[in-house]
Amino acid sequence: MTNLEESLTRELLRTNRSGSYACSTIVDCNTRKYHGLLVVPVPELDDDNHVLLSSLDATVIQHGAEFNLGLHKYGNNVYSPNGHKYIRELDCGRVPTTFYRVGGVILKKEVVFQHFEDRILISYTLEDANSPTTLRFRPFLAFRSVRQFTHENTVASRDYTEVENGITTCMYPGYPNLYMQFSKRNKFVFSPSWYRGIEYPKEQERGYGSNEDLYVPGYFEMEIKKGESIVFAASTSACKTASLKRLFEKEVEERSPRDNFFHCLVNAAHQFHVNAGKDEFYILAGYPWFKCRARDMFIALPGLTLSIDEIDCFERIMKTAEKGLYEFMDGKPLTVKIKEMDQPDVPLWAVWAIQQYDKHVGHELCFKKYGDLLRKIVLSIIDGKYPNLILKENGLLYTNGEKEPVTWMNSMSNGKPVVPRSGYIVEFNALWYNALKFCTLVTSENGLETDSIDLQKRSELCMSSFVSTFVNNCGYLFDYVDGDKKDWSVRPNMIFAAALEYSPLNQEQKKNVIDICTRELLTPKGLRSLSPKSSGYRPMYIGAQSERDLAYHQGTAWPWLGGFYMEACLRLYKRTRLSFIERQMVGYEDEMTQHCLSTIPELFDGNPPFNGRGAISFAINVAEILRTLEMLEKYKY
């Protein structure tokens, strides 16, 4: 904790499951513009999240001597006020708990984000003290989008209003009021000032601006006795301060313990859930900058819900997603907050997600709930009503991706796709064959024989064309084929053809795909997006935005692809690969104490030491690891 080279690379994330979050490093030094104690959506302004309360510096005062527990980075690599040197312990078992020792004073700090409310709760408990002790708190305010910086200005309002045991203030029009209250009566001293030149090193690493000023309206001060606890609340609405301690204790009791690998992943899974009200439920693609994206939502949904026995949660989220799918297919304006619904593989991943639901509840219930949706999706594709998804006479799906990226490999450089995958795309057609076979089975078992026979014929044609189109003479699969153009790059997208329940490949072809993925793509952190032997291999996701865009899908490793790889291994080799897959999972378990604690980042460098990069917590990665753990248990017993 006292070694900043170690502690500043580790982050903590807390969410309210309604789109708001609190995030910083484990020593409470913000290193990103996305960091903050209270980061909330402000739909009246835009679609971004906004940092209201950036941080809260606590100061211990004894005999007139002040010991500031805060930590900020300024220019010339200066850190002040160096509060990390007082940290003696960090415990993340149930809620993040930090112990500070200042002489004879031991102060415990615990943090929770209230579920479904824009309210952060921080409890301070004086565990030990030999003399009368006073606590002073300075709030650092930003009132800005997570994509911007704030600087000293004369427009920001300094006005504040006293409320019960605290104050409320709002720096700019259009923003909600920020309420800062304590469970104990205190004195607020109005002493407005700007703290200039605070720097965020993570933004420097990413090639962005990294400097801002934060506004401190004054400070709160109160005495605290040995054994006493004081709860601080920062929120967009007022609260009854007499109930803050009970509220804090209630929130702590609702937290699941992070005492092992599985429980850490479950905790992370819950953080992606968003209850938007009005009976709408979503899955965020990741933190801190992603929104709900259609493809990511359907890929992540089974792992984040079904794999942890939360079938009702799957149904709630799918109800919102189903509404969006119908609206899009019917050509109506979207009323749901799901982005990228127009991507051509979205309906294929939706069918796959429903297929995972079918495995948990059975064909009858699955057809009852989603039979109409499945039929609508398949018929829309067959009838050519889904944009940029053309069913050709050979039974394969064709997509134009030359000018705009249409797959999950969606990075752009100079206005063009870095990986211009176009034509017959391997995972699209593997998913299409799987969808046809699954829908054949479901319709047959529910008395729709005519539909079933038609789908069976289409699946047979698709299988024949898939093999003749994608299987090359080197034993693996082309990544995409467009006329005479065949992409020989060894990429992980072929693994889906071996992993899906219904595969167009025979056993020998599956084995060849798995073998080459093992030799050239497998890492302890998932599958590389490109083989080191292929042209354009760039394994390190570092540098400015332009450099990172070029490396995004050109050799970086992705855990969610590793999930499908391990599923393919289990399908082909059964129990003989259990120990191998268990060893692979160790690489992910190591991440529980790295990067962002108790979760999995967006991607990893493709070369050792396989450093975590990108977003600090990524939904499809967490989901596929949970789904792999579920598969392991089933194959064991």
Q: What does this protein structure show overall?
A:
- This protein has 637 residues and is an alpha+beta fold.
- Helix content is 33%, strand content 27%.
- The strands form ten sheets. Strands 1, 2, 3, 4, 5, 12, 16 and 17 form an eight-stranded antiparallel β-sheet that branches.
- A hairpin with a 5-residue loop joins strand 10 (105-113) and strand 11 (119-128).
- Helix 8 crosses helix 9 (426-445).
- The protein is elongated, with a radius of gyration of 26 Å.
- The mean pLDDT is 94.
Question: What structural keywords apply?
Answer:
637 residues, elongated, 34 strands, eight-stranded antiparallel sheet, alpha+beta, single chain
Helix-strand makeup class: alpha+beta
Determine the number of helices (DSSP H or I, runs of at least 4 residues).
Answer: 16
Give the overall silhouette.
elongated
- Total number of beta strands: 34
Using only C-alpha atoms, the radius of gyration works out to: 26 Å
Low-confidence stretches: none
Biggest sheet character: 8 strands, antiparallel
Question: Averaging pLDDT over every residue, what do you get?
Answer: 94
Terminal Cα separation, in Å?
Answer: 42 Å
Strand content: 25-35%
